[in-house]
């Protein structure tokens, strides 16, 4: 028997242990659910379950274990991941996603946390979810998730400043964003957002909120017209900031309709482009696929980005033939299938639509995009 045959047999046995219900010798009672699991696999997944199931605990002697104050759907996903090494986050709503991340941290289940971090693309979630995820990452000290959220918020006002969104930000999120050079917003717009934030959250929560406002980036006319009448910032502080040139510029906002040599355009015909070409995008550069002469309804797009760069570092946008943004969900296809010649393949799903453009933009660091691109309807 060859080593390959032995390896295959070993994998088949492990798969059977993982999937065969006969080997699930343990039942967790969570909320109104009974969730069956393999005791050995659960214990091998992380130290939390190892201590619970094989340590000097009451649970180590039980075949049915009741878990109080544990979110059932999130725990079910934990058990699913233990047995399959996969977690389909597309099927998880926003509340349960937060529960899953929190539970994974509670169990110190780093393998699952890393899986979620690599697979989650915040463009597919609401702003409220991203705010909650940022606050959770601060509470649990999940620095990777925190950085992912900050990258998302860096460009949230790139096209339009919406104060209704800004007022929902936690004070910690506001402070973090104000410190970032990459937060793409004009200082005058930021000042106006801060006024609305104070109005919505109260003055007690707002002490010192202007300390990182980059006063030297507000011109004298705007200061006299918009800032000085509020009496929240003194003329003396403003003049000192101007004289010392206290703060550096923030990321430049790209105005709608403005021409930019940072935009790469790729024309696409017949909903499909497959070549060997690759396109390198620097920070804030975009690649747009334009669907020309297309009236076909579609609901998914596949594209490829160079692998090995860690967390996805791009923003996606799909517009209809009426130039309206189409809500999307994004998923990286499992690595054993989706990594092709050094590129990770991603699937973008949306409701049946006639697509006009699909664009991908690099965020905090450069990326390499393969010109392979397919639209389809399943």
UniProtKB/TrEMBL annotation:
Q: Where is the BTB domain?
A: 24-91
Q: Which Pfam families match?
A: BACK, BTB
The record's listing under PROSITE patterns reads:
BTB
TM ranges: none
Please give the GO cellular component terms listed in this UniProt entry. cytoplasm
Q: What is this protein called?
A: BTB/POZ domain-containing protein 9-like protein
Q: Which organism is it from?
A: Leptotrombidium deliense
């Amino acid at each position: 028997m060859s080593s390959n045959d032995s390896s295959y047999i070993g994998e088949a046995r492990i798969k059977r242990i993982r999937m065969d219900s006969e080997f699930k010798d343990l039942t967790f009672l969570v909320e109104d659910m009974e969730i069956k699991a393999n005791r050995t696999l659960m214990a091998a997944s992380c130290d939390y379950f190892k201590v619970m199931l094989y340590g000097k605990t009451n649970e180590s002697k039980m075949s049915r274990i009741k878990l109080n104050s544990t979110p059932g759907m999130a725990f079910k996903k934990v058990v699913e991941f233990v047995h399959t090494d996969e977690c389909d986050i597309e099927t998880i709503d926003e509340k349960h996603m937060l529960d899953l991340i929190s539970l994974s941290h509670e169990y110190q289940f780093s393998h699952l946390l890393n899986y979620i971090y690599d697979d989650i693309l915040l463009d597919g979630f609401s702003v409220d979810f991203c705010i909650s995820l940022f606050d959770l990452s601060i509470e649990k000290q999940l620095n990777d998730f925190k950085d992912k959220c900050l990258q998302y918020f860096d460009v949230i006002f790139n096209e339009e400043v919406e104060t209704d969104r800004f007022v929902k930000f936690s004070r910690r999120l506001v402070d973090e964003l104000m410190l970032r050079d990459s937060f793409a917003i004009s200082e005058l717009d930021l000042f106006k957002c801060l006024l609305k934030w104070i109005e919505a959250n109260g003055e007690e929560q707002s002490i010192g909120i202007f300390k990182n406002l980059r006063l030297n980036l507000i011109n004298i006319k705007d200061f006299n017209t918009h800032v000085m009448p509020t009496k929240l910032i003194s003329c003396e502080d403003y003049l000192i900031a101007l004289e010392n040139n206290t703060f550096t510029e923030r990321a430049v906002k790209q105005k709608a309709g403005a021409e930019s040599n940072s935009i790469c355009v790729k024309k696409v015909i017949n909903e499909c482009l497959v070549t060997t070409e690759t396109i390198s995008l620097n920070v804030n550069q975009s690649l747009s696929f334009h669907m020309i002469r297309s009236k076909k309804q579609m609901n998914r797009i596949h594209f490829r980005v160079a692998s090995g760069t860690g967390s996805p570092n791009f923003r996606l946008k799909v517009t209809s033939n009426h130039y309206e943004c189409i809500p999307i969900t994004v998923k990286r296809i499992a690595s054993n299938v989706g990594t092709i010649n050094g590129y990770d393949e991603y699937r973008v799903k949306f409701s049946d639509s006639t697509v006009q453009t699909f664009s991908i933009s690099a965020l905090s660091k450069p990326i390499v995009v393969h010109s392979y691109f397919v639209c389809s309807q399943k």
